[in-house]
Structure formats: structure tokens, C-alpha cells
Amino acid sequence: MKPVIVCIAKKEHDYIEEFVKYHLALGFQYIYLYDNEDTPTYENLLIKYKDNLKVIHLPFNNYHVGVQFIALDDFVKNYLFTTDITHVAHIDIDEFIVLKRHANICDFINEYIVGDCQGIGMNWRHFGSSGKTEQTNEPLTSRFTMCSQYGDHHIKTLFNKDKFLRFGGCHHVLFSDGYYTKSTNNTISDSPFNDNIDLSVIQLNHYKCKTLPEFKYIRTRQRADIIGDIHENVDESFRMWDINEVEDLVACNFYKNISN
User: Is the per-residue pLDDT at 229 higher than 80?
Assistant: First the structure.
């Protein structure tokens, strides 16, 4: 089994090594990283992970569709069916896969991606600022442990490539007839959303806002999934995503364990 991650990065210099180290330790064997910086950046920054990492430079965002879709098309064309990949998760650098009942991602796959279930929709759980106001050098997973009490209905999909037809967007995939994306409570989801949320087995920690200065910095880049600039009240957006209802230490403890 060879599960991999495909992702795209821009202005993620401060967070990307933690993302790579975390997910390799979780059991993903390889990461395909599309470097959306104008000047190639992440290959040198992540040189010590080169045996488990492929960096593809894909600059700018002036394509006919959002650059994220260009990256996914390139991944499907050049890597998905030309390598020994078995399973794929397409996630962003501010998203961390968290396992609640399994030691690694292969154990999870063996239990849940079976039969007519060829993909698992991982619901977001939004993590807020935890009351912090300035960036520090602590790991992301340690700095931000306060989150929403319940999950968000948005999903990202971990899937088996054997029945894969195409990406339906940034969040979900389409399979051959008779095969589905499900949640861990066996709810079928054929869209980017799943309202029957189960966070007891797997969740996708979404560190969207971090601190206000970090949020403002990351919002200076263009969106990867659309063309052109977005116009928003950044302070208002931060307040909307700064959710700190309960504490969740699973990712924090996992990263501390692999870093010792």
C-alpha cells in the first residue's frame, strides 16, 4: 500500500515542514507538493525529506482556471496512474489529518476504504486562535488547540485510485458506477459536503485563521481555487473563523510524540 498526499503551497514557509513531517509520520509514504511561489522555494526548504517528496514548481495564478485545478490535472496526468500510488488525499497546508482510533493511515484505510466505499470524506474541524495574538516559533499544532465543538460539513476526500474517475472539485472525487465516498458512519456523500458528521474516527483539523497577523498575511495571496483576487473584510473574516469552543489535543500530542 502506498498512500500519498497531493497539495499546493504559497506563502506557507513557516508551516510547511511541520505539515510534511506530521503526515509522513502518520503513514503517508509520499507527498506531491505543487510550489506556487513565483520563484521555486519549497524543494530547498524541504531538502531533508527529498526521498518522500516530489516538488513541482507551478508559479503564478493566471491560468484559465484556479491554479489548484491545474495542479490536480497535472497530478492525475503525470503521477496518479504512472506510479505505484494506491490511495490519495488532496488537502491544503493548513489542514492536518487526525486519526482517533488508528496508529497510522494504512490501518485506517484497511478498515474503512473497502467494498463499495472507495473514498472517505474527512470533515473539517475549525481551529481558532486559542486567544493568541502574535506568531511564535512553536509548532502550529501546539499553538492552536482550541476549536469548534462540532465539525464543519465541508469534506476533503481520502480515496482509492482504482475506481477513481476524476476530481469533482477541490473537495471530492467521482468514482466508477457503484462506488462511493462515505463517512465513517457509512453515510454516502457525492458532493463537497456531509452533514452527518462523525469526528470519532477521523477529522481534518483546519488551522484557517491562526493569529490575526498571520491570517492577514496569508490573505494577501490569491485564492488557489479561483481566478483573480478576492475582496473581503479580513478582520471580519478572522472573527468568523476564530472559533475556540473546546480543546482538542490529539494532533498536538501526536506531533509532540514524533518530535521527541
Answer: no
183 Ramachandran zone, left/alpha/beta (phi>0; psi -120 to 50): beta
Question: DSSP string covering 28-80, please?
Answer: --EEEEEE-SSS--HHHHTGGGGGGEEEEE---S-SSS-HHHHHHHHHIIIII
Instruction: Read off the CATH number of the domain in which 231 is found.
Output: 3.90.550
For the entire predicted model, the pTM comes to 0.96
Please give the single-letter amino acid code of residue 27. Answer: G
Distance CA 230, CA 219 (A): 9
Distance CA 87, CA 187 (A): 20
Task: Pick the closest to residue 20 from 10, 7, 11 (CA basis).
Answer: 7
Three-class secondary structure of residue 236 per DSSP:
helix
State the burial class of residue 125 (Cβ atoms within 10 Å of its Cβ: 0-12, 13-18, 19+): buried
Provide the number of structural domains found in the chain.
Answer: 1
| Strand-pair partners of 96 | 205
Kindly report, residue by residue over 98-108, the tens digit of the pLDDT.
999 999 999 99
What is the domain range of residue 233?
A: 3-259
